[in-house]
Amino acid sequence: xxxxxxxxxxxxxxxxxxxxxxxxxxxxxxxxxxxxxxxxxxxxxxxxxxxxxxxxxxxxxxxxxxxxxxxxxxxxxxxxxxxxxxxxxxxxxxxxxxxxxxxxxxxxxxxxxxxxxxxxxxxxxxxxxxxxxxxxxxxxxxxxxxxxxxxxxxxxxxxxxxxxxxxxxxxxxxxxxxxxxxxxxxxxxxxxxxxxxxxxxxxxxxxxxxxxxxxxxxxxxxxxxxxxxxxxxxxxxxxxxxxxxxxxxxxxxxxxxxxxxxxxxxxxxxxxxxxxxxxxxxxxxxxxxxxxxxxxxxxxxxxxxxxxxxxxxxxxxxxxxxxxxxxxxxxxxxxxxxxxxxxxxxxxxxxxxxxxxxxxxxxxxxxxxxxxxxxxxxxxxxxxxxxxxxxxxxxxxxxxxxxxxxxxxxxxxxxxxxxxxxxxxxxxx
Amino acid sequence: xxxxxxxxxxxxxxxxxxxxxxxxxxxxxxxxxxxxxxxxxxxxxxxxxxxxxxxxxxxxxxxxxxxxxxxxxxxxxxxxxxxxxxxxxxxxxxxxxxxxxxxxxxxxxxxxxxxxxxxxxxxxxxxxxxxxxxxxxxxxxxxxxxxxxxxxxxxxxxxxxxxxxxxxxxxxxxxxxxxxxxxxxxxxxxxxxxxxxxxxxxxxxxxxxxxxxxxxxxxxxxxxxxxxxxxxxxxxxxxxxxxxxxxxxxxxxxxxxxxxxxxxxxxxxxxxxxxxxxxxxx
Lengths: 429, 282
Description:
The complex is a heterodimer. Chain A is mostly helical. Chain A is built from 17 helices and 2 strands. Chain A has a domain of 252 residues: Cytochrome Bc1 Complex, Chain C (Up-down Bundle). Chain A has a two-stranded antiparallel sheet with strand order 1-2. Chain B has 2 domains: 165 residues, Cytochrome c-like domain (Cytochrome Bc1 Complex, Chain D, domain 2, Orthogonal Bundle); 36 residues. Chain B is built from 9 helices and 4 strands; from the N terminus they run ααααββαααββαα. Chain B is extended, with a radius of gyration of 27 Å. The interface between A and B is large, with 67 and 62 residues. Chain A: It is a multi-pass membrane protein. Chain A: GO terms for molecular function: metal ion binding; oxidoreductase activity; quinol-cytochrome-c reductase activity. Chain A: The main subunits of complex b-c1 are: cytochrome b, cytochrome c1 and the Rieske protein.
């Protein structure tokens, strides 16, 4: 589906016409990311991050496939095989650093992409399915990233695997049995490493499949925009190509610039030194910490320190998984018909607090577990859940949104005319 | 319905966290965390000022070679270097013939089998060999070192926070020192156990390794540099920075080319963007 004014694919060349009759693949591309997809004209740079995430996945798949040609998934030699990639494989250091930092870049752009969705209400009707598929992609990414971090078989790989798989033992009665079954042993070892490698290779392709669904679902209602107002007519949109392909190219350039600085000049900045020590089941590191992108969730896990009906550990595990699963219910927790936080003053304030709150959780997740940090984490975790489960349902009913602009075009023109959209909207009411 | 359930779940989590917070606070007040000697007396590494540090970092080959000499004459008695091959030494400026000589003359020989009897034997090293371990296995290493295991040094400068500076500080002239009187006064239980050595740059302050660099001139440098303890510590740090990250120079060079290329791409993309959008207000 698309807007009625969307351009139609009309192949002129005989070969392209022939291809279009047999297999309309160019038509599919044309309608998906070409001139056949009308997009609101007022998108800001936050709308680059979907494309950036796609590029990051592409980089991960390409570097990952080549790395897999040199890597050996065996607990006895995995660490050494990574070192041989770093030292003896042609451009191996580049591939490995690109893959390791590529994961960080991927998660970084996805976090910004999610924050964009939260701020501009992209999860709301009619785009609920886009959001739900997005959460599925996020879960797949987290599983993939976790298993990938285990593969170099360093100390953090091993002990991270030990901690994460330990979550399953929090399940009452059958937990320990499930954990042993998942690991293929009592502790992470060869069996676990091999299945992690297998799944680490599989899941990115599953992710790519869900991304296709994500984009498909997006193309039914079309893209949201910073005002959150629906597209009313042709003047509100521009064709994706060349307008947004050109804008995405700028974003991609900046993305690659940041990526290159990280990869070439501080490739180990986001890693942990302990992962350059080979896994040793007999020596526990002083501080076991996950990669930076899991720190907020790790902080949530660690915040539940008191038994209350359920054991503290089970509360922690429930909360950690719950903190992501609740995103599936977000479109129904927030019942406000207004999408963009620009017109929802109260929601906007609470959302900014939430984003800061997640950064605080990230800090706590990586910091020493002293009383001050634990308490800070407990407060931040409480706000995280309160925001989504208590504040949001209440705010969405009680707040009075600011008046919306009549249309995207009106918002764009008044911005250039020097009056705020709010004033124009007030005047026209 | 969704909202009623969600509010309920929300209050459940917040309630449990409130209880947890209460007990954490109570515990913090009743049993404040004891101060530890490590916390108070541990020192951050000093800056080794290596040429490899920073965005423009390269290896000072003379220095890395001197560091190799320190490794060979001091560290190699106990520490392996198992991810580095003799042939890699060509990267720090040794010629093929020199590398061959270094390999052949290396004191520890490469484990092998007697080609006639099939019994365990050793043979001379060749350039394609990795550096042989000074001990046959972990048990032998521990037996010879008061039950401590000398770690492999190949990745040492990447396996510790601020690794190059850490190695420099840990073996530098001011590292090994008598335990400070204030420490013993404040933490009488923290006396360095027999067989360990007080070293404030080591994470738990007490290291099993005896002072490795004990006197100026311990190593006689081939290039005539005066081998002060300071100089040897700095040089061995430079060498271990190279063993941990041998592709550092290539990486920096590729980085500059990439950043310039991408910056030009950004500039062109920005121009294309301005051009495409020139008639559309947005």
